[in-house]
Every structure is written in structure tokens, then in C-alpha cells.
Design goal:
InterPro entries: Glyco_trans_1, Glyco_trans_4-like_N. With 375 residues, this protein is of the alpha/beta class. It contains 15 helices and 13 strands.
Length: 375
Amino acid sequence: MHISTGLDIGGAEIMLERLLTSHPERKDELVIISLQDEGPIGIRLRNQGYQVIALNMAGKLAFPVALWQLTKLLKQIKPDLVQTWMYHADLLGGIAARLAGVRHLIWGIHCSNLPIGRPLTKLVMKAGAAMSGWLPDAIVAVAEVARQNHIGYGYNANKFIVIPNGFAPLSSIPAAQKEATRRELGLKDGQLIIGAVGRNHPDKGQDVLIEALALLPAELNWRCLLVGRDNEPGNVALTKLLERHNLSDKVQLLGLRDDIPVLLNCFDLFCLPSRSEAFPMALGEAMSVGLPCVATDVGDCRELVGDTGLIIPPLSPSLLAKALTTMLCFSADERNQLGQKARERVLGSFSLNVVSQQYDQLYSRIAKQKESADV
């Protein structure tokens, strides 16, 4: 059983989806529970034949009600192993699993630092840290930086294993589909397209990117596409920020889209301007389609990118602008060469197949440890 805080579009949720669908022959052995609603990923999994249960956790009594519902479900289903994804699922799913007598429990840490402006999440994390020594059998961190930081937060150091996010080649996009998307977006020939994918949130650094874009040389012919939840014209704060920097006609707000592979193929380069990350799915997917990347040195981004792109310190619009200028001034061949190196690196060193095998090995090790302890 996999228990996730939610199944909306996000790095952890996408990784869960990829992990499950990499072995479709196992779907009858799995149950996926979302503490919140089904979300788009839950709907996609259900449409593919996976059993998805949404608890629709909401309101002042959300925690005790969800704990009761979850414990009841676990007693009915009797899973052999429970793997939880993200802080709230770790805490609630972990307590419910132990109350229901589940023998094997694995937690998942999918961020390096606490999200900005989430006091309740901080309390949940602190409770998880206090219980980490005796509740889970293992804790998966998707990045070495995430492991180190959470040990600093009080998590039990002996429980951790680092398993990065994994990536598979995205489906090839027909040239006609790419051209149709470019026409839909009004992208002009000869215009260099900077793409950034991620929900609008201080952690993701869209404000830093906008400040950097305002510093780009006037003679460069570029356009930037901001993709992800709340990156849309209805976001008043974001549109005002663009107006203040005179970028309203240079930055296009696309909001949440379900055609990310197509959009990635429309970009000339990818930018990840985040203040905080662990092992970002968006960056790895951009690399997997052969995009040269500029990213901030947060989480394990440096480990992911290696020498295939440009890594700069976070919170530095001037250095980000310099890196983007460098990439935009490269010839098309130079960008293509970097992009090909990026693709080879991410699919060679961080393939979904290898990551899936690491999870299988972890499951086997936990089961064997428990069997030995029972003898």
C-alpha cells in the first residue's frame, strides 16, 4: 500500500506514479491511498486499473478522522508493506499502520527544507522526527541533502536510505504537434524560449527568475514560459511583478498544463530558479528530453546536472541573468550538445529502472530483517 498526502501534480506524486506504472503487471497487488482528494494523478492511476482510495481529509477534525479511517482501511486490507509519501502521510500513515498491525513500514522524505509559510507542516515534521526512531523501519530520502538536513531536524540517522527520483525517456513528440503548440502559444521563429516548470511558490523562485529576466541584454530575442499551478494571468501578485519589471510582453503565464512533454520540446533551454529543492523531477525531465539547463545550487541539483549545464547560487538574480545570457548566446549546436549530454547523464545515472530496483531491494531487505527478528 502506498499512502500519499495527496495526488495532485507535484514531484513526489509524479515519482509515485512513475514508480507504479513502471511495473503495470503489479497493479493488482497495490492499493494507493490519498489523504486528500484523488487529484489528477489519482484519476490517471484509477483509469489505468489501479485501486485508488481518497479520504478527502479536510476541516478542523481532519487529522483524527483521517487516522480513524486509515486505521480501519488498513485493518480491512491487511497490506504486507506500507510506504508513505511526504510528511502528513508519514505521520498519519505510520501511526495507522502500527495501530493496524502492519509489519513493514517505510517513510518518504521528498524535500530538503521545510516549505516556506507552512507552520502546520512544521509541527507534523517535528512529530515525525520524534517518532522516527521507532515508527518506520526505513526512511527514504530522495536526496543526500534531504537526508543530512532531516538528521539535523531530529530524524533518526540510522533509518535513512537515499534513493533519488528516477527518469525514463519521454515519448517522442511529432514535429507537427510541436509546431501546432508553438502556433497556439504565439511563439515566433528565431525566438529563443526559456522554460520554467513548477507551481508558483516562494520555494520555486519565480520572483527571482523574473528579476533575472529583467537584467538580460536588450538585444537578445527571447521569451519565457512559466508553467505550473498558479502561474497564470489570474495571479495578481505575479502579473504585478511582471508589470513592474516591464516583462508582461516577454513572459507568458501558462498555468497548469497536461502536455508538459510537448512544452519541453518547445523550449530552447530550461531554468530552475528555486530557493529549495530535493531532487527535482522538473529538472530531470527537462534533461531527459535533451534540454540544456540553468539551475540553482539547492538540494541535489548539482549532482543531477553534473557538467551538462550551469549551476549558480540561489537568490542571486544577477548571477542567474549572467548564466541565462551565456546559454542564450551559445550557438544552437552548442546548446544541442549540452542537451544531449544532459539526456545521457540523467537516463544513464538516474534511470527509472535502476530506481525501481532500489525500491524492490529495500522492500526485500526490510522483510528479511523482520523475519530474522522473529526467529
